[in-house]
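Annex B.
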Amino acid sequence: MKTILITGTSKGIGLETALAFGRAGHKVFATMRNPEMASEFKQKIASESLDITIHKMDVDSDASVNSCIDSIYDNHETIDVLVNNAGIERHGSIEEMSMNDFQSVMNTNYFGVLRCTKAVLPQMRKNKKGSIINVASVAGKISNSPLGAYAASKFALEAISEALAQEVKAFNIKVAIVEPGIINTQMAKDIAVDETSLYPHSKRFAGMFSASLKTPTPPSLVADKILEISESETWKLRHPVGPDAEPFIQWRASKTDEEWVDWNAVNDEDWYNSVENDFGLNAR
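SDR family oxidoreductase: predicted structure tokens.
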């Protein structure tokens, strides 16, 4: 049995990951901003007799992160696995999005990971064991409008995770990056058309996400991969997850930067036709 700390467990990938670890017999500290909203989660924990406790933590706050993790260490010697899952998404053109939205995305998706990681590293290093699993995204490898702010935060997460892996391997601490594609979560469903935008990309991507979600990939698939990574001996750094993840990454890698810019800058008809021809998705 391992002790597992997971951030952002109120719904989606985080919730399913907490349940996956609990069902596998591990002790789970499931953290979220608003535990009072987790009544259904609490009922599931009780009905299945899972060793999961819910803790209040806001990854945007140094004080909240340190208070939560210190309280866990007061009662438990180690945290064996940290799963940095908490994340938010804001989308829109770079011209039209507010600076507050850019800062919020980076604070949660990048600095939030750093806060939690720095809080557990001293103990992991001392114990010479541990795993840190960071939930990034295909958007950490591919930047598209209107997801520029989100992609920037995930690119940053990929970069810091790669550097961290180099630093901590000598202490027998494993770092892994999970890169989900389009997963059936509320975040994916919230990619909506902005009818007021001066740019066409919001409408296009809303259509593509909607088309993809007609054959949905459940968040439990990502949860199962995270559990698999934690229980395996692999030191593999990056783990694309979902049927579209690797194809999207390879598709982007097949294009020059200039071809990529041009593809995203074409007129609507050519863009929709390309998505249908390349991926079989009717994004109209």
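The domain at 3-193+218-254 is CATH 3.40.50.720 (Rossmann fold). DSSP finds eleven helices and seven strands in the chain. Further annotation is deferred to the next reporting cycle.
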